[in-house]
TrEMBL record:
This is DUF190 domain-containing protein. Belongs to the UPF0166 family. It comes from Chelativorans salis. PANTHER family: UPF0166 PROTEIN TM_0021. InterPro entries: N-reg_PII-like_a/b, N-reg_PII/ATP_PRibTrfase_C, UPF0166.
């Protein structure tokens, strides 16, 4: 896969406990992005955060894994990201989605 130098970054903020069809939402999103041949996706787990409900989610020693925040970052061309957005609408019922233009400096290794 190739990624243009001028690409888009799709950032999705959800909770670790969020589900779609009984499966973890982050997993459904990443697998769908891969199925649509989007260049790359990464899921990061946050140590602490809150969203529209203002309920604090944190990973403390006495309360491990209290619906921790997850951030999914997906990068590809504007066209591929735009095609993925309607798919997200069918999968997600809550969360935050942001979009920004990025400049890709390297993708893969020199041999690929």
């Amino acid at each position: 896969m190739k990624v243009p130098k001028q690409a888009q970054l799709l950032r999705i903020f959800i909770g670790e406990d969020d589900r779609a069809d009984g499966r973890p939402l982050y997993e459904v999103i990443v697998l769908k992005a891969r199925e649509m041949e989007i260049a790359g996706a990464t899921v990061s787990r946050g140590a602490m955060g809150y969203g529209h409900s203002s309920r604090l989610h944190t990973a403390k020693i006495l309360r491990l894994s209290e619906d921790l925040p997850l951030v999914i970052e997906i990068i590809d061309s504007e066209e591929k990201i735009e095609a993925f957005l309607p798919v997200l609408e069918t999968i997600m019922t809550s969360g935050l989605i942001t979009l920004e233009k990025v400049q890709v400096l390297q993708y893969g290794t020199n041999g690929e």
